[in-house]
Design a protein that fits this description.
Blueprint: E1 9-14, H1 20-29, E2 33-38, H2 43-49, E3 53-56, E4 82-85, H3 87-95, E5 99-101, E6 107-115, E7 128-135, E8 138-141, E9 147-151, E10 159-162, E11 167-170, H4 182-193, H5 202-217, E12 222-225, H6 230-243, E13 247-253, H7 261-272, E14 276-281, H8 283-290, H9 296-316, E15 323-325, H10 330-339, E16 363-365, H11 373-382, H12 387-390, H13 410-427, E17 438-452, E18 455-468, E19 476-477, H14 482-495, E20 499-504
Parallel strand pairs: 1-2, 1-3, 3-4, 4-11, 12-13, 12-15, 13-14, 15-16, 18-20
Antiparallel strand pairs: 5-8, 6-7, 6-9, 9-10, 10-11, 17-18, 18-19
Helix pairs in contact: 5-6, 6-11, 8-9, 13-14
Bound molecules: xanthosine-5'-monophosphate (XMP).
């Protein structure tokens, strides 16, 4: 029986390179499924996954230094095709009996690569091409059984192979855009060397995930905190499809949500998806605890603690629960792998359910662990989630509380919700709305004088925060056309009681942050 395409897996061992996500992206672009795994995975764990190929990533480590990250030595003898990239190639050289020249200098930049053998890895790429180098050490003497298949002017073994054992190494980075034909090199490895069929699609991922979830959960029960954000929504929809009513979801309305948000989430998930969804109206609990609190970190802490309390109480109503489903994504996993030097991933620290009490023993179910954000959106669409959810902007767990500077009160929440609604309504009309990372209002407890219908006013200020970003690590204030800013400002001042001034935040991150608290 032929293997299903979704079962063709490439294992990427993570040695901490900043480009690891790009390796995964290049593999997926060739329609081959891949997973990032800790560098010290054992040979038997690897064999259990039955990968068609292994990629050893680059990394900042040096074999010259103590504490260099080393894989298990037997992974080189599993008979599985392997591609070592940069540090990965040096590992291959080192473990297979070659000699590594250690260098304290780091060479990086564009190089011309001359192809000496175009049978497989460099098939169809001509005699020379531009590549991006970034390395200190290099393979000075290739191991027995290997041959150099490409060189640069300064590096005689810029690529090597052991054709019989299907072990390949490249000293440069094929995964980054500065190696313009890198995608073809990766594809040659995947298709020509590993024999992948390149037929992986999101619908095959769904079939594969459903099967995996059912197998893992067995007859057990799963609980999930649904926030209405993309990650938790897609997680809930996927797990629901796999095990139906044995998934119980908890939606906590902490009173810090945007206008209409709670109703929308309930409508979509309870009515449309028939999710086993518990709605908890906990506004009073949260607002009572927040009364009089102005310090941002204190606010966050209170909200986090209260959330866990409410969630735990509600989750207990489902009876014996075995798993907690979380929307952890690939970048979260990579971050924690890199930080911890490759040991298993932990829950994202800012996740609301990150600090569950110890008497709740859940196993984690993280069906999105191997996906990137844009892939999660595609998955959400395939699962039938509406665009309102799938293309939703990020929204912080502590909600509007971190967008009201100073004390959170019902009146301030009302004002902010009304202002925020107008920002959203007008921004949705902007033709470049899809390029915006986040667009929202912030309430400043600063009152200033204004004049409205011949009367003096003394009201709050709303700041508009509209940013572009790729990953929220850095962000730029968006250069929104004046007429849109004007319309937003006019509408807020005219329609929202309690505001007489609107300002535009023109700070980038860093040194500012996206949220004001
Ligand atoms: P900052 O304000 O740090 O935000 O530039 C970066 C991104 O993270 C979101 N954010 C949060 N998300 N819980 C979350 O789930 C939080 O406590 C939290 N704080 C900030 C923020 O909206 C932005 O996209």
């Amino acid at each position: 029986m032929s293997k299903k395409p979704s079962q063709e897996l490439i294992a990427i061992l993570d040695f901490g390179s900043q480009y690891n996500q790009l390796i995964a992206r290049r593999v997926r672009e060739s329609q081959v499924y891949c997973r990032l795994l800790p560098f010290d995975i054992t040979p038997s764990e690897l064999l259990n996954l039955n990968p068609k190929g292994i990629i050893l990533s680059g990394g900042p480590a040096s074999l010259a230094k103590e504490g260099a990250l080393l894989p298990h030595r037997d992974i080189f003898n599993l008979g599985i095709p392997m591609l070592g990239i940069c540090y990965g190639m040096q590992l291959l050289g080192h473990f297979m009996g070659g000699r590594i020249a250690l260098s304290s200098e780091r060479k990086y930049g564009k190089s011309r690569l001359f192809v000496d053998n175009d049978e497989d890895l460099f098939y169809g790429l001509g005699s020379s091409l531009d590549v991006w180098m970034s390395h200190g050490d290099e393979v000075a003497k290739i191991p027995p059984g290997f041959e150099a298949i490409a060189h640069t002017r300064s590096c005689p073994a810029a690529s090597m192979r052991n054709k019989k054992q299907k072990l390949y190494g490249v000293q440069f980075h094929p995964e980054i855009a500065h190696t313009p034909r890198g995608k073809e090199i990766m594809r040659n490895f995947l298709v020509r060397i590993c024999g992948c069929s390149g037929q992986w699609t999101m619908s095959s991922f769904i079939d594969y995930s459903l099967e995996k979830i059912r197998k893992k959960v067995g007859k057990g029960k799963v609980v999930c905190a649904l926030s209405g954000g993309v990650d938790s929504s897609v997680t809930a929809a996927l797990v629901n499809k796999a095990i139906g009513q044995r998934l119980g979801c908890v939606f906590v309305n902490h009173g810090l949500l945007r206008e209409g948000e709670a109703d929308e989430v309930m409508r979509i998930f309870a009515e449309h998806f028939h999710l086993n969804l518990h709605y908890v109206q906990a506004e009073d609990r949260f607002l009572n605890r927040l009364a009089g609190v102005t310090d941002p970190e204190k606010k966050r802490k209170i909200i986090g603690e209260e959330f866990i309390r409410v969630f735990t109480e509600e989750a207990k109503k489902f009876g014996q629960v075995d798993f907690l489903a979380q929307g952890t994504l690939c970048p979260d996993v990579i971050e924690s792998l890199s930080v911890k030097g490759g040991s298993s991933a932990t829950i994202k620290s800012h996740h609301n359910v990150g600090g569950l009490p110890e008497d709740m023993h859940f196993n984690l179910l993280e069906p999105l662990r191997d996906l990137f954000k844009d892939e999660v959106r595609i998955l959400g669409r395939e699962l039938g989630l509406p665009e309102a959810i799938v293309s939703r902007q990020p929204f912080p767990g502590p909600g509007l509380a971190v967008r009201i500077i100073g004390e959170v009160t019902r009146e301030r929440l009302r004002i902010l919700r009304q202002a925020d609604l107008r920002v959203m309504e007008e921004m949705r009309k902007y033709e470049k709305f899809s390029e915006i990372w986040q667009s929202f209002a912030v309430l400043l407890p600063v009152k200033s004088v204004g004049v409205m219908r011949d009367e003096r006013t003394y009201e709050y200020t709303i700041a508009l925060r509209i940013v572009t970003s790729v990953d929220a690590m850095t962000a730029d204030w968006a250069k929104i056309p004046y007429h849109i800013l004007e319309k937003i400002s006019n509408r807020i001042i005219n329609e929202v009681k309690g505001v007489n001034r609107v300002v535009y935040d023109i700070s980038s991150k860093p040194p500012s942050t996206i949220e004001w608290e």
